[in-house]
Amino acid sequence: MAKKKVVLLYSGGLDTSVMLKWLQDELNYDVICYCSDLGQAEELDGLPEKAKKTGAKKIYIDDLREEFVRDYVFPAFRADVAYEGIYLLGTSLARPLIAKRAVEIARQEGAEAVAHGATGKGNDQVRFELTFWALEPSIKVIAPWKMDEWRLRSRDKMIDYAKKHMIPVPVTKAKPYSMDRNLLHISYEGGILEDPWNAPSEDMFILSCSPEKAPDKPTEIVISFEKGNPTKINGKAMSPAALLAKLNELGGANGIGRVDIVENRYVGMKSRGVYETPGGTVLKVAHRGMEQITMDREVMHLRDELMPRYAALVYYGYWFAPEREALQKLIDESQKDVTGEVRVKLYKGSATVTGRRSPCSLYHPEVATFDEDAVYDQKDAKGFIRLNALRLRMRAIRDQQAAPAKKGTKKS
Question: Does this model's pTM top 0.85?
Answer without folding.
Answer: yes
